[in-house]
Design brief:
alpha/beta, Rossmann fold, 3 domains, 50% helix
Amino acid sequence: MEYFSIIQALCRAAMAEPSPALRKQVERLRDALSKDGEEKQAASLGGILAAAERLKEMAPSRIERSRATLSGEVLGRNTPVPVDRETSAPLAEIIFPAEINADSPLFNPTVAQAVSTIVDEWTNFEALSVVDISPAKTCLVYGAPGTGKTRLALWIARKLDLPVILVKLDGLVSSFLGTTARNIGNLFTFANRYRCVLLLDEFDAIAKVRDDPQEVGEIKRVVNALLQNLDVRQNIGLTIGITNHPKLLDPAVWRRFEIQLEIPKPDFAVRKAIAQHFMPPVQAPDNHLRLIAWFTEGSTGAEIEALVRTYKKATTVREEDRRGLLDTLRQFATLNAARIQSERRALLFDDPANLFRAMHEDPVLAFSMGDIGDIAGKDKSTISRWLGRQGGKSGDGEVTHG
């Protein structure tokens, strides 16, 4: 091959830090050369690939180097967790990286980029230390229930290859005076001993505003204990707090978190991606995914997942019991009225002409008459007539232009 020496040099430089996609392309080039009888050149690329693999196996990963800089002991599967002295109930659950779903949570590009910076900081721990900077060690994640906050925190821990000490803070609350504050102290002492991500779920259960007139003096002592322990932990590991009710948090709690990440409800593109993610092994047409995304405006990822489950059931039961998409949406809206925006829900049970017109004219959905016909089981001419129905009724019962 002419200019092979240049190609060889490019491949050698690229394989110094290869991505999976880049490695695949070099492998394809090697295989193509071999198929064409260029065995010597194919062997040369094979040598470059093998050398890159050996270097990868010998060199510690960025995450491994970052873990090495963390103080603390390794948390094992047999490590006993602290318990409530009065009830003997465990104060935390240990979750190891291998037990966490490897799929990245689905968010809009802005949130996804913000999340990636958290992971990048920790995987570049050493580079930051050179300029006397450390990654953010405290993060508060808040938003509506079902938006993926806990899943996000667990996914970050998996990316960092660190075990999670998962604490549901409402479980630390005890009816015994002083026990709740003691539980918090014991929990933080335990977490500070190990390399881990400390995940404080349902954070508002304890971190409430201290001047709440509905609370007794005990809550003030509990919040003070929490603040003191957060201060001590600021330079130890990564701490993530999660809440559905940010307005309940004491202002002093907010100041303890370097990152304050709001997880919004998903937009149209993310809702469609969520529906597509949970759809396999069912193969749903694109216009079905788009309509599901449209009807779930204002819904959370958990609510979209519930609708997809309903859709999958409706498409896999006996042939005579199968429902069309619109019937499935009506069934779901009836059984889950609060999960569908009232305006969209009303359209489902309105005159089909109004529903089809909304589907056709909405700039986000932008359904063609063919799309509507496919979903409604009608031909395009019928849909066209229905879209023209407005104003008063004609003598034959059809709605005509006024």
